[in-house]
Amino acid sequence: MHEKVCWGTVAGAFRCLRLATFTTAATAGVRAETTVTALLRLRERLDRMTEQASRPVDDWWRSAVVYQVYPRSFADADGDGTGDVNGIRARLPYLADLGIDAIWISPWYPSPLLDGGYDVSDYRDINPEFGTLADADALIAEAHALGIRILIDLVPNHCSWEHPWFKAALAAGKGSPERERFWFRDSKEGGLPPTNWPAAFGGPAWQQIEDGQWYLHLFDISQPDWNWDHPDVIAEFDSILRFWFDRGIDGFRIDVADSMAKDPTLPDVPLHEDGEPTREKYVGNPFYDQPAVHTIHQRWRAIADEYAGTPQGPRVFVAEAWLSPAERLAQYVRPHELHSAFNFDVLRCAWDAKELREVIDHTTENLWAVGAPATWVLSNHDTVRHRTRYGRDQREALEGAGVVPTDLELGRRRARAAALLELALPGGAYIYQGDELGLPEVEDLPEEVLDDPTWERSGHTVRGRDGCRVPIPWSGSEPPYGFGSGDGQPWLPQPADWAPLTAEAEAADPDSHLSLYKAALRIRRAEEALGEGRLSWDSDAPAGVLSFTRDPGFRCVVNLGAGPIDLPADAEVLLSSEPLADGKLPSDATAWLKV
């Protein structure tokens, strides 16, 4: 095992940063901060970390603010139009200055990129379009030097049809040991697929090959499902975990963590009235939330805990499992299973005080009951950005891109208010890249550039997720907005009106979305009441208002009502998402108070 981190001391962190800075030249086309500036920012960050050192380092994840990087769209160091590892490295000072605790990097493995990298052909390398293993090692070391942890994506339900094991299975033929690692089955009577299971991206979940057998793919046809009843698959992923843990990563985000185990009897799912098979994750679904999945997670937790004696502490897992109600999700974060899980109920919740309170209560009660922290998520690479969702009629907020009208100014106000709500709630929080800039969904991408497999699998009726994956605008007045070197355009086109939303423009504006996030994260780190803990709802809050107190001495007030409200006369306003008018908090705004 080789540790490339410097968690032990402040001096060690400075030594590690100097090594990282002087051994790596600034990336061409992406402006990197000077060594002196980076060191000063590190000093400020370490001072803040020292102020809040009451919790053991092993529990950092319970309160962490994690920033999601979608590599293709974050920053392009070599100017080829695609984001890469060195682009992330060059922007580490930006992330440190923002004030996050960890980065989650979406898949960076070799892949044909038929599903944005979630079709993995090699779990132990870096996609050449993104860089090399040496680049990844440097990123891990440089992030750790800045006090930033690194989580990477693990895709255990399926691989790419370019994976060597699947290619060997196709070549080996019926009944071969190679095919046992996947779900190959013969036709049902009449030449039908083995089951009626639907694929997440449209169409059936089985694909027939030349010899007549079918293979299972719960997602795209290019993503065959692993057979987690096979010992080779179990051993292979044990090895993959240790490979990356030994390189110094701090943990994994587990893609579709509820899907690996299948009912081996392969029963059909119920049909809707229209005759189509259900996609609902009902209790007993044969390919989601099967009891055997917990055995896999318990095995992985034991591997992560093997690293408890290292300077970084034990490695961690966060589950992606779109499960409701929260009682089901809580089963994934029981002791000796996964550390935390994304809470998608808030992401799917309307901008409504009653509904939000119910979701917050239900989430915290069920997760606290098993000793797990809550995590809060507003957007990610699979969902319409929340600025756009909050600007819609909330009865249609979850519709796909380009389906319903959007008031982006209303969405901006609500997105700012929601950010302060998210960061005030007990537990951890996730920020999707660009949310700190207030980026909206790009709903008018030309059809010829759409890349999401949903577009093809739906027969060009569902535009898919590309609108939230448009590359980040960093600087300048026109595309590519500093995304890469020169004037080369990125893999997805950026809107012509994004100049006011660049990181450069917002950094210079004290009232910008970015400035709000920086201020909130600075206060969150300084206030003892924030992070993990409990909340108490304030009984005197008027209708349409969420108001809760966190000890010691912190109150969050969110006005979801139609008009302005009074704030407590004796409270000090730490931060508000919108300016107060005569001491009143306007509609669709949040205030943080010292009480």
Individual helix count: 16
Estimate the global geometry from the Cα principal axes. globular
Rg over alpha carbons: 24 Å
Helix content: 25-40%
Q: How big a fraction of the residues is strand?
A: 5-15%
Count of DSSP strands = 18
Low confidence ranges: 1-55
Largest sheet features: 8 strands, parallel
What's the pLDDT, averaged over the residues?
90
Name the CATH superfamily classification of the largest domain.
Answer: Glycosidases
Q: What is the name of the CATH architecture of the largest domain?
A: Alpha-Beta Barrel
Family: Belongs to the glycosyl hydrolase 13 family.
InterPro entries: GH, GH13_cat_dom, O16G_dom_2
Protein name: Alpha-glucosidase
GO molecular function, one term: alpha-amylase activity
Spell out the key features of this protein.
3 domains; alpha/beta; five-stranded antiparallel beta sheet; Immunoglobulin-like; disordered N terminus; Oligo-1,6-glucosidase, domain 2; TIM Barrel; eight-stranded parallel beta sheet; 28% helix; 595 residues; 18 strands
